[in-house]
């Protein structure tokens, strides 16, 4: 049976709406009382897994899910071996470099060599500064990255920015955009190539909307 | 001013109680309406940072916090350069290998060579299987690790077990314990050695209880 991995968090509601338009009802995942992480749609056509956004590419790469919906930011950071089928046109945000507004840095290349940059997106941050040929130390954090510059631990952060509210509240400003991100439909490469589970039919139904 | 990093989540309440016994009131962090991640105690004696458990060793290692409270599991996984001062005697849990109860595996060494083990604690899992000389593939997951064996992606998981309720609910059983864990008081090595901020006085007050 076709299995699709859906991401917890900001993209879940729109992901479930998209599935609904393709005839698959996984709205049980939106009910607060739900504790199940694996459900079948009421018509028994397909299964869905509810996992952390970062885990979507893992389940798709290992073939436990044939399709997945996940932000481009996660795909870029994890560099998982999945087929990127389509930009789904929701969940827009951007990966940015931000610094305290009181600092004198106005672009990434203003940062001091051997400065410290805190980020949840270590690979994206490394790639950005490597391309600039600027040797900075990337410190991996798991949450509240804005505390890095506030406490003085880091000169800058690389983080996902949506409305910019968190940055403003913490006295930070964006000085560079690494890339823009939105939700993507991804597939297991082998399943996609062999068209198992009538994958291409499902993909058409999901992305035609 | 002395700064202490406190972990969000399961250890927060007991950590704040311990600080209170040492004369430092950070109970504001327990109020649901609180959005501040950095506060001063009302007497102005010390500051506290509220961060993810995994980030506590980072802030302590880089010296933005002089003390920190964090689970031994995180210290072992991150191998951060911090001084482990004392076992604080709360937050008991264990790092275990678990498999589906229906499987035939009853110890780690029963697992097949080149089998797959899912874990949030990649380094701990690697070390365990390396010591057994059993080549398994460790797949990093960020949440709901129990889905690994349920979906058939992995033969086993390495995860933190407290009451065992999550394992039971998902038809998994523990087959090996890697180590036991509890909350630790950690310090920045240099601050501790130089006894800046009267660190040893504070440590005595915190651990005497």
Strand order of the largest sheet of chain A: 2-3-1-4-11-5
What is the number of independent domains of chain A? 2
CATH level-4 homologous superfamily of the largest domain in chain A: Periplasmic binding protein-like II
* Low-confidence runs of chain A: none
GO biological process, one term (chains A, B): L-histidine biosynthetic process
InterPro entries (chains A, B): ATP_PRibTrfase_cat, ATP_PRibTrfase_CS, ATP_PRibTrfase_HisG, ATP_PRibTrfase_HisG_short
Subcellular location (chains A, B): Cytoplasm
Protein name (chains A, B): ATP phosphoribosyltransferase
Structure description:
2 copies of one chain form a homodimer. Helix content of chain A is 28%, strand content 30%. Chain A is an alpha/beta fold and 209 residues long. Chain A has 2 domains: 116 residues, Periplasmic binding protein-like II (D-Maltodextrin-Binding Protein, domain 2), CATH 3.40.190.10; 88 residues, D-Maltodextrin-Binding Protein, domain 2. In chain A, β2 and β3 form a beta hairpin. The longest helix of chain A has 10 residues. The two termini of chain A are 23 Å apart. The mean pLDDT of chain A is 96. At the A-B interface, β3 and α5 of A face β3 and α5 of B.
Can you describe this structure in just a few lines?
Two copies of one chain form a homodimer. Chain A is an alpha/beta fold. Chain A contains eight helices and eleven strands.
Supply database-style keywords:
homodimer; 209 residues; alpha/beta; D-Maltodextrin-Binding Protein, domain 2; 2 domains; five-stranded mixed β-sheet; 11 strands; 28% helix; transferase (chains A, B); cytoplasm (chains A, B); glycosyltransferase (chains A, B)
């Amino acid at each position: 049976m076709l299995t699709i991995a859906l991401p917890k968090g900001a993209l879940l509601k729109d992901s479930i709406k998209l599935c609904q338009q393709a005839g698959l009802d996984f709205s049980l995942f939106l009910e607060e009382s739900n504790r199940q992480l694996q459900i079948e749609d009421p018509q028994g056509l397909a299964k869905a897994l509810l996992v952390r956004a970062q885990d979507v590419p893992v389940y798709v790469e290992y073939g436990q899910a044939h399709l997945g919906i996940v932000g481009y930011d996660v795909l870029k950071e994890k560099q998982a071996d999945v087929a990127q089928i389509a930009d789904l046109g929701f969940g827009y945000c951007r990966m940015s470099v931000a610094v305290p507004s009181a600092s004198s840095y106005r672009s990434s290349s203003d940062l001091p060599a051997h400065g410290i940059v805190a980020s949840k997106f270590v690979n994206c941050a490394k790639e950005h500064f490597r391309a600039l040929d600027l040797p900075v130390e990337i410190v991996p954090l798991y949450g509240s990255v804005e505390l890095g510059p506030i406490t003085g631990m880091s000169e800058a952060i690389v983080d996902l920015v949506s409305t910019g509210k968190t940055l403003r509240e913490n006295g930070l400003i964006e000085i560079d955009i690494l890339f823009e991100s939105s939700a993507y439909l991804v597939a297991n490469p082998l399943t996609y190539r062999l068209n198992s589970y009538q994958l291409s039919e499902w993909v058409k139904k999901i992305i035609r909307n």
